[in-house]
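Comment thread on ticket #2218

A.B. wrote:
> Attaching the input chain for the structure job we discussed in standup.
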Amino acid sequence: MGQPHPGRRRGRVGNATATVTNTRTETMTNTNTTAKAVPPEWPRTWMLWGVALIGVLHTPSLFNPFVADDYVYLGQAHDLSWSELPSLFLSATMDETASGVWWTPEGVLPFYRPVAIVTMAMEYRVWGMNAFGYHLTNVLLHMLCAWMSGRVALRLTGDGRVAVAAAVIFGIH
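C.D. wrote:
> Ran it. Output below, let me know if you need it in another format.
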């Protein structure tokens, strides 16, 4: 049997076999099932609380009316037929007919926003002209994106605190 690495100790503790490296990173192999560890679901639980907080903070927006370009999108969503869907992705989605909105100068359009038009058309089929439904959909999507940003942060860093912070900061931005 060779000499162990000078920075490592090997030994048996109860039913556990452990290898500890005396460097900045530690590697531990534990076969003892009674060992206490931080539960892996705690970041998930805190992210859920954070996402719930985001939903509460955005609740007042549910009662707002349509504004600015919402009416332009609603007009195009109302007129969209599903047979036009392929051409929607190949041309400008807002042409010069949308140029009459107050916030854009003449000649600034066309915009290319096919996904926005398609989602607005799907929402129009569900909610009609009820602004509450559109805002509810947006808040739910925002909460989902906050959750996903936390999951990405957890995957990148492996630190639950960073994941929770990323989810909450994204959600309340």
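A.B. wrote:
> Thanks. Noting for the ticket: Residues 102 and 141 are 28 Å apart (CA to CA).
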